[in-house]
Design goal:
Elements: E1 12-14, E2 19-21, H1 23-40, E3 49-54, H2 58-69, E4 73-80, H3 84-101, E5 105-109, H4 110-114, H5 118-124, H6 129-148, E6 152-154, H7 159-171, H8 175-180, E7 184-185, E8 193-195, H9 203-213, H10 229-243, H11 247-271, E9 275-276, E10 283-284, H12 290-299
Parallel strand pairs: 3-4, 3-6, 4-5, 6-8
Antiparallel strand pairs: 1-2, 7-8, 9-10
The structure holds Fe4 H S5 and zinc ion.
Length: about 300
C-alpha cells in the first residue's frame, strides 16, 4: 500500500478513510485531525493555558505530544490513583515523558493528598471502582485547573471512546448523559471548560502515533477495568467496524450534528441549578457534592477543601 499523500510506501493503514500513510504524512494527518477538532468545536485559542489530563496511556500522551508540537501552552496533570503497580508504572512513564520534553507536570496523589486510593476508597463507599475513579478524576481535574489558573482541561478521549460512551447512553436512552456528550463542555458555574481534541482519531491511530514517534506508554489495561461495561460496548462496535469501516465515525458525528442540538437543553437546565458545595466549594446540584460524600466514606473525614 502507498501513502495517500506522497505515494511513498505506507506504514499505517486507516481503514475508515480507506487510506495508508507513510510516517511523516501520518504524523501530519494526526496533527490536522486535532487542529480540525480544536477549530471546528472552538475548543481553545493559541493564548489559552491548557491542562492535559495524562494517565501514562497512549491517548493522553499522544494528545500532550501533539499539542506541544502544534505550539500550544499545554501542561500535564497526572493523578496518582493508588492502584498498585499499575499506578507506579504509569506515574513513572508520565514523568519520563514530561522530563524529556521539559514540559510542566502537575501531580495530585490520591493516597498522599486526599487520604484514600481507588480500590479501598471505592469499597468503603460501596461504589464500583470505575465509578469512584471517574468521580474523583472529574472533581480533581477541575480543582487543579481552577487552582492553577488554566483556561481549559483537555482529555485524551478518542473516537472509539466517544462512540462507546454514546452507544451505552443510547442503549439506556439516558437523556441527561446524552445532553452532556459533546467534545466541548462549557466553562461556567465554577466548571473549567473541558475538551476532547482526539475526537477525530481512533484508538489504533493513537497507538500507531506513539509507536512511530517513540513514545513509551503503559500498555496494560488498568486491573480495575475487568468487567467494565465500556469495554463490552467497544468490543461490539469493533465487530461492526470490522465489516463496515467508518460506522463508528458515522454514529458519533451523526449524533453530534443531528441529535446533540435536540438533547443539549436537558443538560443546560441541570447546570442552572448549580451552587457551591459547602464541603469543597466545587459546583454541584445536590446539597453536598458526590465527591465530598465519596471522600467522607472513603476516609471517614468530612470536607475536602484542604
Ligand atoms: S483508571 Fe479508573 Fe479507568 Fe481504572 S479504575 Fe476504572 S476508570 S479502569 S480509565
Ligand atoms: Zn464537595
Amino acid at each position: 500500500m502507498k501513502c495517500r499523500v506522497c505515494r511513498e510506501p505506507a506504514v499505517v493503514e486507516v481503514r475508515r478513510h480507506n487510506a495508508g500513510f507513510c510516517h511523516p504524512c501520518f504524523v501530519k494527518h494526526c496533527c490536522e485531525a486535532v487542529t480540525r477538532a480544536i477549530g471546528g468545536y472552538q475548543m481553545f485559542g493559541p493564548d489559552d493555558r491548557i491542562l492535559v489530563a495524562v494517565s501514562g496511556g497512549k491517548d493522553s500522551l499522544a494528545l500532550w505530544d501533539i499539542l506541544l508540537r502544534l505550539g500550544y501552552r499545554a501542561d500535564g496533570l497526572y493523578l496518582g490513583l493508588g492502584i498498585g503497580a499499575y499506578s507506579d508504572e504509569s506515574g513513572h512513564i508520565t514523568r519520563e515523558f514530561a522530563a524529556r520534553r521539559e514540559a510542566r507536570l502537575v501531580e495530585v496523589d490520591l493516597p498522599a493528598d486526599l487520604g484514600y486510593d481507588i480500590p479501598t476508597g471505592a469499597a468503603a463507599a460501596r461504589r464500583a471502582p470505575c465509578s469512584a475513579c471517574g468521580l474523583s478524576k472529574r472533581h480533581l481535574f477541575n480543582r487543579a485547573a481552577v487552582e492553577g489558573g488554566y483556561d481549559v482541561v483537555a482529555t485524551g478521549h478518542n473516537l472509539d471512546d466517544e462512540a462507546a460512551v454514546l452507544f451505552g447512553n443510547v442503549l439506556r436512552w439516558d437523556l441527561a448523559y446524552l445532553g452532556r456528550q459533546h467534545p466541548v463542555l462549557p466553562g461556567e458555574g465554577g466548571f473549567v471548560r473541558k475538551v476532547k481534541p482526539l475526537v477525530r482519531l481512533g484508538e489504533r491511530e493513537m497507538a500507531a502515533y506513539c509507536v512511530l514517534e517513540g513514545i513509551d506508554y503503559i500498555v496494560e489495561e488498568c486491573p480495575m477495568a475487568a468487567g467494565n461495561r465500556h469495554l463490552g460496548y467497544k468490543a461490539a462496535l469493533n465487530e461492526i467496524e470490522a465489516t463496515s469501516p467508518g460506522s463508528k465515525a458515522a454514529f458519533l458525528f451523526g449524533f453530534l450534528e443531528r441529535m446533540s442540538p435536540l438533547v443539549a437543553p436537558t443538560a443546560q437546565a441541570e447546570r442552572e441549578d448549580l451552587h457551591p458545595c459547602p464541603g469543597c466549594g466545587e459546583p454541584t446540584v445536590s446539597e453536598v457534592c458526590a465527591f465530598c460524600k465519596l471522600v467522607a466514606k472513603a476516609t471517614g473525614v468530612e470536607g475536602t477543601s484542604t
